[in-house]
HAT C-terminal dimerisation domain-containing protein (Rotaria socialis), 122 residues
Amino acid sequence: MSDKDVCEPPSKKSKFMLQLIDKNEIVKEPGMNEIDRYNALMVEEEYTNPLTFWQQQHIQLAYPTLYPLAKRTFAVPCSSAAVERQFSAAGQIVTQRRSNLDLSTVNNLIFLRSIENSKRQI
């Protein structure tokens, strides 16, 4: 029995990864889909910022399905300012005298406060 006769089972992919594969995708190498090509990619340069890799036109064209996913993933702001504002607002609402407020009441008050603040900015 030769090496060619041995059939390896297909590699298991998560359901999420299978949803990313476009059924009409043009495969550049026989038997490889876009995710397999990306996993096999050998990058000569060292990228400290993934956005610089995905901003290259030839990369966007080579991975048309993965590019929008990467764009959405790396567009998440790296700031905790909004969270800090919410904690500050909660700290002003839940004082020593109001420490027994129900959690839903505190959430509603913070929500109303954010609406009030957004109206002031307009």
Observations:
- The first helix runs from residue 15 to 20.
- The radius of gyration is 25 Å.
- Residues 81-121 form one domain.
